[in-house]
Specification:
11% strand; 3-stranded antiparallel sheet; 49% helix
């Protein structure tokens, strides 16, 4: 069975358990990632002539397995595995597997042996992975990097740029629009683990199907090594990662001058206080500061930005993540900012949410640089994306819809929503003394919900508040008249609630607001049209998804095409946000569909079942039945065995009813319908007369078949215990019925289970496609999108009710109510002898 992404991730993360506790996450990540690298290249390239990656004889993962349990395992891994691999593939700064950080003596042997054993798992057999260019291992590497960054804490998480931010930068820098080739160069002067570089390369590959050339420099030696391995796992043969301090010793040069690139991206350390170490800024040989100004000694943000500017070709484009302070800080930075603006190099600024990055919680921005046609640039496009994110643990994270919206608005220069983005002219910026602080130009604060004093004093809902809901009235023009009227409902205050210009009243009772909306003909027509809209997209998409799996099938291509189609389908549709619909698909992709697509990519349209075996705490295996990942059992039941499922549901309902009767009888025989028999004098004989809380079950230690039978045996022939005997017999009958129902239910479920299991081998490819595409994928998406329709009515219902309640009791009525209450209290006090 093919490997699933979710299982791959969990298996890899579990490998970290072997190292946790002994060292910091920023250290143990190196060992786990190197182990992943060795396993992958061994499975993929060992014994393959002329392969992109060389695995020397004796240096494969299989050779590492042979070292398990050896007393000198760490030293042998270094000499026989790591050193030959590093030399053959020009890798440097590999971790020391014989380090004391891994423990001493037996502890180190045990730890490394267990770590190797984890990577021996069949689930991690990468030789069977046949989805070329889809970055299964690269994505796994990114997954681990993200988790390591979380575990590393504030001071050590800067080796990783969140993938979501990298995706934004890759799309806004313009590489997807440019004509790219293998010679197109992309550079990151502070590349960390290389994730940002790779996202830009991925964007170019998606647009042009070419692998651009990637260049990176990283100050930390171990992180530079990780970047090199990351490039290999992403199949980037044309890459060059160098280790060193970029500002003090830039290693990419053409002769004595800095090498220039087509695209430059970077996430440098924020406000680096040691940026000038090893540099004489006033005599910089590379002239990075000569025409703009020297950054402050304790603020290195502009030093990195100016390095980027100098490293770009004359038509080059770049993007850099920087703290918000660079937009408004004064003195030397103000001069640099002014010079960059006057040069026309700053194309745009994107404000990001706070707490996105692992090294800091402060908000950051993306400064977009474009030298092409800089002399004619008349403004800077500003975008405030600070409100679009989701909480993810103790960090914030951009959702897929947030990323797409940022990219769409920025690339189109769409300023239709000035509270989100706008083009700001240079003249306006000059008037603000070249201060680029985003809130000066974009007011993204939610408009205050103003209270209407006249409405509170005299009653009535302000017509302005009602008209603010115009998006609903545009779709359902008659709905407004159904919900609001210039005249109050009868009994709502009489003359005090008279008709007034500019004020309306609720035309239906408050409890009728929701049904009045949902049952309104215009709203029902709108919902019907939205359902038809999805049905049309579903029909087209279903046909496209069911085509035979072509060679070179790429799950990422599939979700890109599918999601873009859905996004476009809902563009400009009233009341529903196309990005919300898009997010539903992307959430389902991450949770389920992604794994399905990788199974199909590897195995084709096959519904293979397998046994589910779980181990208990003692390591004993337990058979938990069977399962099928691609076509879950419930889909088979729904399509082929609905009658059997309905019969089971009926049995379950009957069983639930009988069990409830039993429980009620045990708790309170009277409420359960059991009435004690009456004697000749009309009174209940025996213990029912003497105990009004008669309950024979309360005397039993346990209420079960054995205890009830034993009690009945004790009471046999006892005429005074007639009521107790009757109650116990009633319980016994219900218990027998319950047992029979449980057995029938178990037999029916076993029969259905066997029918389903026997059905799988008989499924045709067409049937599997229908089950997966129609019954699973599109059905789940349809449920989610229909939920959006419900939310539309709920939002309107909440707002109408809120307005109605806000103004339903005007001040004169409140005063009358207070006076009435005052008189009522005074009357009570006088009756009690007090004079109020």
């Amino acid at each position: 069975m093919a490997i699933k992404k979710s299982e791959l991730y969990s298996s890899l993360w579990s490998s970290c358990d072997e190292l946790r506790g002994g060292m910091d996450a920023s250290q143990y990540k190196d060992y786990v990632l190197v182990m992943l690298f060795i396993k992958y290249v061994s499975d993929k390239y060992a014994g393959t002539p002329y392969a992109e990656i060389t695995v020397p004889p004796g240096s494969s993962f299989a050779d590492m397995v042979a070292l398990k349990g050896k007393t000198d395992i760490g030293d042998q891994i270094n000499k026989k595995i790591i050193a030959p691999l590093a030399t053959a593939n020009k890798l440097s700064d590999m971790p020391d597997f014989n380090s004391e950080k891994l423990g001493d003596g037996d502890e180190k042997v045990h730890r490394l042996t267990n770590l190797i054993a984890i990577f021996e798992s069949k689930a991690l057999d990468f030789s069977k992975h046949r989805v070329e260019d889809d970055d299964l291992l690269g994505d796994a590497y990114e997954y681990l990097m993200r988790h390591f960054a979380v575990d590393s804490g504030k001071s050590k998480g800067q080796f990783y740029t969140p993938a979501e931010v990298s995706r934004v930068m890759a799309q806004i820098v313009g590489i997807h629009e440019a004509y790219t080739s293998n010679e197109t160069s992309v550079y990151d002067p502070t590349c960390g683990s290389g994730s940002l570089l790779l996202k830009v390369g991925e964007a170019a590959h998606a647009a042009r199907r070419v692998k651009v050339s990637l260049y990176g420099q990283e100050k930390d030696s171990s992180t530079a090594g990780l970047a090199n391995m990351n490039m290999i796992l992403h199949n980037y043969a044309t890459r060059e990662i160098k280790q060193g301090n970029t500002l003090a010793n830039p290693l990419f040069k053409d002769g004595d001058a800095l090498k220039t690139f087509d695209f430059v991206v970077a996430n440098p350390p924020f406000s680096d206080k040691r940026w000038s170490t090893g540099i004489d800024p006033l005599n910089d040989p590379h002239e990075r500061f000569q025409h703009y100004g020297t950054p402050p000694a304790k603020q290195g943000d502009y030093a990195y930005l100016l390095h980027i500017v100098r490293s770009l070709k004359s038509n080059g484009k770049g993007a850099c993540i920087l703290p918000h302070g660079v937009l408004f800080r004064g003195n030397a930075e103000a001069d640099i900012r002014k010079n960059l603006i006057r040069k026309g190099y700053i194309k745009g600024i994107i404000g990001l949410p706070a707490n996105l990055f692992y090294g800091t919680g402060i908000p950051a921005c993306i400064v977009v640089i474009d030298k092409e046609n800089a002399h004619s640039r008349k403004g800077i496009f500003m975008l405030d994306a600070s409100k679009g994110y989701i909480k993810d643990g103790n960090k914030n994270r951009l959702r897929d819809c947030d990323i797409h919206k940022i990219v769409d608005v920025f690339n189109r220069r769409d300023d239709s929503d000035p509270s989100y983005a706008r083009m700001v002219g240079v003249e306006e910026i000059e008037k603000n003394e070249f201060n680029l602080n985003i809130p000066r130009y974009i007011d993204s604060q939610q408009a205050e919900d103003l209270q209407d004093i006249a409405g509170h004093l005299q009653g009535g809902i302000p017509q302005a508040d009602v008209e603010a809901l115009h998006a609903y009235w545009d779709v359902c023009p008659d709905l407004k008249a159904t919900l609001f009227s210039p005249r109050p409902l009868a009994g709502e205050g009489g003359a005090q609630r008279r008709e007034r210009v500019g004020y309306l009243h609720l035309a239906v009772p408050k409890q009728a607001i929701k049904p009045s909306i949902y049952d309104h003909a215009e709203f029902a027509h709108f919902i019907g049209r939205m359902n038809e809209l999805f049905a049309e997209w579903r029909e087209l998409t279903s046909a496209a998804l069911k085509i035979p799996k072509p060679e070179g099938f790429h799950p990422k291509d599939l979700i890109h095409q599918m999601s873009e189609s859905l996004l476009g389908w809902y563009a400009d549709k009233p009341l529903i946000d196309q990005y919300d619909v898009y997010q539903h698909l992307m959430d389902y992709w991450a949770a389920t569909m992604q794994d399905d697509c990788y199974l199909i990519a590897d195995d084709g349209w096959k519904a293979s079942t397998y046994r589910v075996v779980e181990k208990d705490k003692k390591g004993k295996e337990k058979d938990k039945g069977w399962a099928c990942d691609l076509v879950p059992k419930q889909l088979i039941v729904n399509r082929y065995f609905a009658a059997q499922q309905a019969a089971i549901r009926e049995l379950e309902a009957t069983l639930e009813s009988v069990s409830a009767q039993l429980a009620e009888l045990e708790e309170d025989p009277g409420n359960a319908g059991f009435q004690p028999a009456c004697g000749q004098d009309g009174r209940a004989p025996g213990n029912a007369e003497s105990d009004p809380d008669f309950n024979p079950f309360a005397e039993l230690d346990k209420v079960n078949k054995a205890s009830v039978a034993a009690r009945l045996k004790e009471l046999k022939g006892d005429r005074e215990a007639k009521d107790e005997i009757a109650a116990l017999n009633a319980w016994r009958k219900l218990n027998e019925k319950e047992s029979d129902l449980k057995k029938s239910l178990k037999d029916a479920e076993a029969e259905l289970d066997a029918l389903c299991l026997a059905k799988y081998p008989k499924l045709s490819e067409a049937e599997i496609k229908t089950l997966v595409v129609d019954d699973k994928w599109l059905a789940a998406l349809e449920r989610d999108i229909h939920g959006e329709m419900d939310r539309i009515s709920q939002r309107l219902t909440r707002r109408v009710k809120e307005l109605a309640e806000r103004y339903e009791t005007p001040l004169p009525v409140l005063e009358e109510n207070v006076a009435a209450l005052h008189n009522k209290v005074a009357t009570h006090l006088r009756k009690m002898g007090f004079q109020p």
